[in-house]
Amino acid sequence: MEPVPGKALVKLVVQDDSPDGFRDLADAYTMFRPSYKLDNAEQRGRFNIGEKLLLAIATEARITSTTGSIIFGPDGRKTGRKKTHVGSILVATIKMTRAELEEAERLVGTLIPPKGVTTIINGVELQHREPIATASYTLQTEVRGEEGGFNQTRRKAEVRVHEVREGETPSLYEMGIPVDTIDCPWHVDVMQKVPLAVDRQSVKGAYHLAVAGHVAEMMADNMTDEESRAGWVGTALEAVEDEDAIRSIADKRFGKAVVFDPSDPEANRKAVDEGYSVVHGRSLSKKAWSKVRGANAIASAGQTFPSGPPPAPQKELPPVAVHCPHCGEQLQ
Fold this sequence. Notes:
The protein is an alpha+beta fold. Helix content is about 25%, strand content about 25%.
C-alpha cells in the first residue's frame, strides 16, 4: 500500500502464489455468487463479496490471473489477454486519506498468519504468533444449506488465546482475521467460520458469551486475582462448564469468602469477625450464581458459621416397670 503523491489516493497491490490462480474471474463482479469456500467450515468466506466491496471504493482496478485479466475503470469493465503463470495480482487505486492509510496499515499488522504461510505487508513479513493457550470446544458455525445460502450448525473447533501486543485492541478472530472486539485481556482466535453479518464486523451476544466462557475456563488457573475480578469474568461465569475452573475463578475473585445469608444475620457477623469477606447477591448475575452454587465454589455464611439456638438438653426418662402377663413378676 503506497500513497499517490498529491492526491487522497492509495495504490494497492495484492499478489498470491496459488497454483490455480483466480478460479473464476466472474467472481470479481458477480454479487452474492455462491462461494466454493462455503462447504468448508475451516475456510474463510461465505458471501463472495470481498472483491466487490473493494471495487466499490476503487477508482480503477485490474485483476490478472492464470485464466486472464479483467480491468475496471471509468468506462466500465473489460477483459484483457494478459495472464500469470501462477497466482493472481490485483492492482487498485483507492480513495483514501493518509490517516485512513495509517489505520489500514495498523489493522493488517494485527493479522495472525497461519503457520507455514508467508504473508508480507509493505516488505515486512508478518510473524506467526504462538498461542498462550489452546483447547477444543463446540461452537456455532456456518455451512452451505441444502437449498442454497448457508445454515448455522454446531461444530467442534480449536480456540486459541493470544497475547495482545502494544497498540492492539483485544479482538475476536476468525482463523487469523479480526472480526470484532472482545471484552477480555487477550485475542481469541476461533479456527472455523464465526457467524457473521455481511459486513463481517458484528457477532451476536450469545456467541460472544460462549467464547468468553471458554476463555475464562482456559485461563482460570493463569489469571491473576485482579484479572479474575474484571467485569467480563463475572459475565463469562454464566457460560463456564468446568467446575474446577469455576472454583478457581471464585477463589481468586472473592478470596476467603462466604455468601451473605439473609436468614442468619449472626452468621454474617461471625464471618466478618473471622476475617471472611461476605459476598452479596448483586456481585454476580443469577445465572452466574447458579454456576457457582452448582460447583460448591462458595459456602453461605449460615453453612460455615451456623448460629441457630443450642440444642435442648436431653432429659433422662424414668425407668419403666414391665411385668410378665402370665405370672405378674417384674421383668428386668
